[in-house]
From TrEMBL:
The keyword Calcium does not apply. PANTHER family: PURPLE ACID PHOSPHATASE. It comes from Marine Group III euryarchaeote. The chain crosses the membrane at residues 446-466. Residues 25-121 form the Fibronectin type-III domain. Keywords: Glycoprotein, Membrane, Signal, Transmembrane, Transmembrane helix. One of its GO terms (molecular function) is acid phosphatase activity. Gene3D superfamilies: 3.60.21.10, Purple acid phosphatase-like, N-terminal. This is Fibronectin type-III domain-containing protein.
């Protein structure tokens, strides 16, 4: 008899609190993209009194004047078994190449005013950031601060985001307050540049949470939280999960095959394909406390990347930076230097990046000797970014300690041939070519006059004799 009574009291009390709840102060402001240039997804969190009710406002006020936020849009909210409520509002019909100012909240509780800038219409280039294994350490904060000055149009994050769960892979229930700490820590970056994610092993709590925090806190443009794709100017991005079933015949494997097939046929509109997920198919950081290449994941998925000519694959999980040559089944397809003067031109296989150096303690377990497929590797904190155009990708790893470019490469899909702008000086070969051209023209004229064949033969013989006499 006591349990039904206690349950009734709990439910009744919760409803009373919910009915009398007040709006909470907005925090954890972050942006996401739908892939449509005229849209921006705005998300934020509020700390509520219960895990079952979110009375705080879902409104974004925005405009092109910092002092006149004359537009507004309402959204929705979501909660899991935690008191943080995530609010999501979609802004649409935005103008290109425009700075928008915005604040979030409602019912008397508003955030500070933030801003973001929409892309130009048909931009010459875009700049994408890529980091993984971030967390809340001082090194992670330094990475965030350094990235703020890069004018990033988008950031992709291949998993192990906050480290709320230090054990990972469903082995314990993490401290959910670390999610709040993390999202407040990176707000200065996420409030101005949209971020898109893939799940890592440290996003998975044991039951009853599972991946609830990841699913509730972050927007994605597809019906599935764990694998999805979107187009962003020149690039088709594909986020997949190394933490869910991926074997051939699985739902994810079938989806990926269909998505990459469509993307490869749509190269005319989006010439580049970039895949990102957490566990790396190629990593030489496998000694000691490292992890190394995820062989089972690679054997299940790599053939799809090869068949549909995925250009870049960006991973995390191992806490260092590493870049491969274009590689498939450990066979190197191009050993170009990758410099601007010697770029990778349609190399025929994917270049893999491990970008797990964003803030979590580094792994110093590099295998020796360095594998032939490994082009560059370094154990250092930092971040990566790449500038993309219709015809090129320029990828860089920037080291935090000195803000120097530690590694850089170029990938191109077109080789430009420069036409000479001045008439070259005459030389012997060119003089002979001119005389030969004149000779051919004389022969053609004879044919056009429908001259009898025997006369043409005599004439050709005479012309050749005249030429050799001149020499």
């Amino acid at each position: 008899m006591r349990w039904p009574t206690l349950l009734f009291i709990f439910i009744f009390t919760t409803l009373i609190i919910a009915m009398n709840g007040e709006s909470a102060e907005p925090e954890q402001v972050h942006l996401a993209t739908t892939g449509i240039p005229e849209e921006m997804v705005v998300q934020w969190g509020t700390e509520e009194d219960t895990t079952v009710s979110c009375p705080s406002g879902n409104t974004v006020e925005y405009g092109i004047d910092n002092d006149n936020l004359n537009l507004s849009k309402n959204g929705n909210n979501d909660m899991y078994l935690w008191t943080t409520c995530t609010h999501t509002t979609l802004l649409s019909n935005l103008n290109p190449n425009t700075t928008y100012y915005y604040r979030v909240g409602g019912d008397g509780e508003w955030s500070n005013v933030y801003s973001f800038k929409t892309l130009e219409e048909n931009p010459d280039k875009i700049i994408i950031g890529a980091i993984a294994d971030h967390g809340t350490s001082s090194n992670a904060q330094e990475t965030t601060s350094n990235m703020e000055g890069e004018n990033l149009n988008l950031v992709i994050h291949p998993g192990d985001i906050s480290y709320a769960n230090g054990a990972g892979s469903g082995n314990s229930i993490g401290d959910q307050s670390v999610w709040d700490e993390y999202q407040n820590q990176i707000e200065s970056l996420t409030s101005e540049s949209p971020h898109m994610y893939a799940p890592g092993n440290h996003e998975e709590d044991s039951e009853p949470y599972g991946f609830d925090a990841y699913e509730s806190r972050f927007f994605n443009p597809g019906p599935n939280s764990f694998w999805y794709s979107f187009d962003f100017e020149f690039i088709h991005f594909v986020s997949i999960s190394s933490e869910h079933e991926y074997e051939p015949g699985s739902t994810q494997h079938t989806w990926l095959k269909n998505d990459l097939e469509d993307a490869n046929e749509n190269r005319g509109n989006y010439p580049w394909i970039v895949v990102f997920a957490h566990r790396p198919m190629y990593s030489s950081n496998g000694d000691g406390d490292g992890h190394g290449s995820e062989i089972e994941f690679r054997e299940a998925m790599e053939s799809l990347l090869f068949d549909y000519q995925v250009d870049l694959a960006i991973w995390g999980h191992d806490h260092h930076y590493e870049r491969t040559y274009p590689v498939f089944e450990e066979e190197v397809y191009s050993n170009n230097s990758g410099t601007q003067n010697d770029p990778f031109y349609k190399p025929g296989a994917t270049i893999h990046i491990v970008a797990g150096m964003a803030g979590r303690s580094t792994y110093d377990g590099l295998e020796e000797p360095q594998p032939l497929w490994s082009a560059y590797r370094e154990v250092a904190y930092g971040y990566t970014l790449f500038e993309a155009t219709n015809t090129s990708i320029n990828y860089k790893f920037i080291r935090n300690s000195d803000m120097q470019i530690a590694d850089e490469f170029w990938l191109v899909n077109t080789i430009n041939v420069q036409e000479p702008t001045e008439t070259p000086e005459t030389n012997y070969n060119q003089t002979n070519q001119t005389e030969d051209t004149s000779l051919i023209n004389q022969i053609k004229e004879l044919n056009y006059l429908e001259t009898p064949f025997i006369i043409i033969i005599i004439a050709i013989t005479a012309i050749f004799n005249l030429k050799f006499r001149k020499k």
